[in-house]
Fold:
Amino acid sequence: MSEKDIIMQTELETPVESTAEEVVEEITEPVQEEKVVEPLTDWSKIDEMERQLELSKVTIRKKSRIGMRFRRIFGNTVGQVILTVLSILWVVPLFYLIVQSFRKEPGAWSPTFFPQEWTLDNYKRLFTETEFPRWYGNTLLIAVCSCLITTLFVLAVAYAFSRVKFKARKPIMNVMLILGMFPGFMSMTAVYFLLKILLPDNYQSHLSLIIVYSAGAAMSYYVAKGFFDTVPKSLDEAARIDGASRFRTFFKVILPLSKSIIIYTILISFVAPWCDYIFVSYIMAGVPDIGMYTVSLGMYKWLEREMIQQYFTTFCAAAVIVATPITILFMFLQKYYVQGVTGGAVKG
Structure:
């Protein structure tokens, strides 16, 4: 073997021997054992931690309940204070009006809130020395007639829009709804001249007022229509199968089930002419016979500069008498009024 071959063999054998030694050393090295976490066996500490956690939950619940209770009490208190203030602002003028109707001292101004002398002479004078009884009767006649016609119109139109499907139904409903948003006094001039054309010899009369209050009543159909939409249509279908016409179905089947909306419509229809002053003052202006006035127009005359000092306490007595029937109606029919409003407040 040559020297060259011996050198090459030495170079080849040397790394093999070193590699084998390193492998043996790695194999013979002691294996490090992994640290094993022993489980916690102190049960007293675990119980203490659970107890603290439970106490913290209870504390959080108590704080949340206290916060909710405080917010509820604070909100109720603020609401009651606001309602009390508003009630005082509403009740004090009414109470002053009632008190002044029993005042014996003449004149429109009094240095004290309560009368120095109490009397019923203002009520006696109201029915013996003024035209108030005639005004009251005129207003009652106009209000009752307008109420009957308006109620019939509103309920009939609402039922027709609720049940009858025709081509121009939606456009007509939209037009009537938009027109009903405008205040009625915007049409005073047109109404006045129409009355002069239709009733040339009697346009300043109670009949004219009844026509004015009843003619545009159908535009207030939407609340009644919403109520009729809640009445099952199966009732109409059953009545039609039995041979009833739409007219008979409306009066014999639907109306007996619509007591609340009928009372609501009657109240609204009665209050409007009973309290109206704008149309009365425009249509009845210049009437020579003051006995043709309604209570609103006649009582307003007492507040003019020439008459207020003489008739102010009488005006207060008349205001109490005029407000009495409306108050009684709303007190006894409030339940039906609310039912009519809520029953008609649905999407039609």
Observations:
- The CA atoms of residues 327 and 333 lie 10 Å apart.
